């Protein structure tokens, strides 16, 4: 898409409580991050063993946890 998102199933959205405007999105095509409140997105799946991300949460300290299909 024009926003930088994949044409795949979007599965979860989480806001970073330590950084206003930063969002994370879980999708069948990886984990994506926005630093502008969702106006644009970039892939941030480096280091994940599986690109099929089922869920994402951000802790109160700003730590990102992604749950993948493979675990």
Describe the protein's topology.
Blueprint: E1 10-15, E2 23-27, E3 30-34, E4 42-43, E5 53-58, E6 64-68
Antiparallel strand pairs: 1-2, 2-3, 3-4, 5-6
The whole-number mean of residue pLDDT values reads 91
- Uncertain segments of ≥5 residues (pLDDT<50)? none
Distance between the termini: 28 Å
Total count of helical runs of at least 4 residues: 0
Percent range for helical residues?
A: under 10%
Shape: globular
| SSE order | EEEEEE
Beta-strand level of the residues, as a percent range?
Answer: 35-45%
The computed structural class is: mainly beta
Number of strands: 6
| Strand order in the largest sheet | 1-2-3-4
| Sheet with most strands | 4 strands, antiparallel
Gyration radius, rounded: 11 Å
Task: Describe the fold and architecture.
0% of the residues lie in helices and 41% in strands. It is mostly beta strands and 71 residues long. The protein has a four-stranded antiparallel beta sheet with strand order 1-2-3-4, with no helix packed on it. Strands 5-6 form a two-stranded antiparallel sheet. The chain is globular and about 30 Å long. The mean pLDDT is 91.
Brief digest:
The protein is mostly beta strands and 71 residues long.
Q: What keywords describe this structure?
A:
mainly beta, 6 strands, four-stranded antiparallel β-sheet, 0% helix, globular, two-stranded antiparallel ribbon, 71 residues
């Amino acid at each position: 898409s024009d926003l930088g998102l994949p044409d795949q199933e979007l599965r979860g959205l989480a806001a970073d409580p330590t950084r206003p405007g930063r969002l994370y999105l879980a999708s069948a095509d990886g984990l994506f991050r926005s630093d502008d409140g969702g106006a644009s997105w970039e892939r941030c799946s480096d280091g994940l063993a599986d690109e099929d991300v089922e869920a994402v949460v951000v802790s109160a300290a700003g730590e990102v946890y992604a749950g993948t299909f493979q675990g």
